[in-house]
Amino acid sequence: MNAQRLLGPSEKLANQIAAARRIQAQHKLPFRLTEANSCFGGGKKGVSDTFASALWAADFLLQTAQAGYASVALHGGGDGIYTPIEAVSAPAKPRPVFFGAQFSNHLAGCDLLGCAVDGTTSVSAYAGERGKMRLLALINKSALPITPKVLWPDIAARPPATIADLRAPALDATSGIELSPSESGSMVVLPYSAKLLAWR
After folding, report:
1. Please, are residues 176 and 95 in contact by the beta-carbon 8 Å criterion?
2. pLDDT, the chain, mean
3. Could you tell me how many helices (H) and strands (E) the chain has, helices first?
4. Residue 94 to residues 26, 144, 157, 161: CA-CA distances in angstroms?
5. Best CATH choice for the domain 3-199 from the list 2.70.40.10, 2.60.120.10, 2.60.40.10, 2.60.40.1180
């Protein structure tokens, strides 16, 4: 496991999503995923405890939510490498995965819509509506800044407001991770970062 593999496409997840959709359609029951996280066996040091895992968590949680999962439980606890919250000492401390989960939580309660980015597989896009507000989460998993062309009707004519940016000093950073409000409504997504935009 390394950061590039972690942030790349997952055939296993795609197959599980397809199976979950078949089960939901057949039995009319919600699907819940338990004990998920970045890497089997408690995580891998240098990957699961770095900013790469925050970007992975944001992408993974939004991907499963868009697929109709009722919930996802991230495994953790104590001082495990991939735990979202380190709770061995007081006060408890957030780890990188926690910030990714917090980023995805901005779309909680939204009706998630189909959304695509033209011309790149390095950016994930997730769109949601909450009342009259439209939200767009963009996750850049590449080393280059990207200005994506988002294939979502009616947003291009209106400037967005940026609600939050998820960023860190480097992909392998274990500290300095920030999920913070932003004043910029730019569509540019910096290398290895995530951005949440809103149209009101």
Report:
1. no
2. 91
3. 4, 12
4. 39, 27, 38, 27
5. 2.60.40.1180
Report the pLDDT averaged over residues 150-173: 82
- Reduced to 3 states, what is the DSSP secondary structure of residue 189? strand
Could you tell me the pTM of the whole model? 0.93
pLDDT reported for residue 155: 64
- The encoded tokens of residue 59 equal 């992408």
DSSP 8-state code for residue 138: E
Statement: residue 183 has pLDDT above 70: no
Residue 172: per-residue pLDDT = 97
Distance CA 12, CA 60 (A): 12
Averaged over 40-59, what is the pLDDT? Answer: 96
- As a whole number of angstroms, the distance between CA 192 and CA 200 comes to 27
Query: How would you class 161 by CB atoms within 10 Å of its CB: exposed for 0-12, middle for 13-18, buried for 19 or more?
Result: middle
Query: In the prediction, which pLDDT does 154 show?
Result: 63
Alpha helix ranges (H) inside 67-145: 96-104
d(CA 13, CA 27): 21
The tally of CA atoms less than 13 A away on the side-chain side of residue 84 is 17
Two tokens at 1?
Answer: 């496991």
Instruction: Measure Cα distances from 189 to 98, 101, 110, 141 in Å.
Output: 21, 19, 22, 10
Give the pLDDT of residue 71: 93
